[in-house]
Amino acid sequence: MASVQIHQVSHVAVFPSPVTETEELLLPLSFFDAHWISIPPIQRLLLFPAAPDLHYLKSSLSAVLRRFYPLAGKLTYLPATSDVALSCSPGDHVTFIEADSDGDFTRLASDEIHDVDSFLRLVPELDVKVLPAAVMEVQVTRFDGGSVAVGLAIHHAVVDGHGLWLFVEALAMACRAGEEAISGISLVHDRTLIRHHPRGDEIARRLLKKMVPKLPIINTRSRYEGTRRTFTISRDMIQSMKQRAKDGHIQYSTFTALSALTWISLIKTKAVELQARSAGFSMACLRIKEEVDESCKCCKM
Q1: Which of these, 123, 138, 190, 251, could form a disulfide with 43 (CB 3.0-4.6 Å)?
Q2: Model-level pTM?
Q3: Among its keywords, does the record have Acyltransferase (predicted)?
Q4: CATH numbers and ranges of domains, the chain
Q5: Nearby residues of 119 by Cβ (< 8 Å), 6 or more positions away
Q6: Closest of 116, 115, 125, 122 to residue 142, by C-alpha
Q7: How far is CA 148 from the centre of its chain?
């Protein structure tokens, strides 16, 4: 198994900070956020055949964090109100880990059956077991030949999948075209817009008490242990499935066809107990344009 050696740990600050020096900005979690407090951090891995300049990557990260400043903050427990809040202050930063690996980058990027253990070594181990806890960490791992893996770990109570990819897209824009490329990005981080529900605070505290009754200690749920595999389904295959499922004048969507294929495959492999009341799976339906840069591949952990 490939080894990963960490050789430097530094911090990328939010500079200049959007938070004034005389105050700490507290953004209490809404009742939508509280449900995710005990979920393991989101982990994403970006593989680049050609290494980006690390100094430029750090400066771009600092620029993007000015707009996504809660990602550099900490999740904090407020015992006076039993709330959990995002704490943002002028000294906020993101831990930036630099490492080297003797692994086979080409195999990691191309295998259909993914080497999960090797992937996990390329993403940070964000410690969220006790509050206050950092929201995000970044790890950059160099391979022989100049390839690089960029791993992200972000607390799920702060960011959902859509928010994460907004951040990744902004970082890519800043790295590619400079800080001016993200000057038009405008984000709203004020959760009071959601907490306006008349019982919003009460619902959030009730959820926190249920999900994490021993605050500030958080018993994070175990991460799913299983294999990871990529299946490539071509346009012709999708059209064939739609034709086979055609029923009169009903035209099935691509999402419906792929969902049906997934369910049938799960049942055939006996991965779903037929006696169970329900079962679910996660799915992202993506339409990839031909001009998409093939130098970057993403893997959901």
Answers
A1: 123
A2: 0.79
A3: yes
A4: 4-222 (3.30.559.10), 231-301 (no CATH)
A5: 45, 108, 228, 299, 301
A6: 122
A7: 18
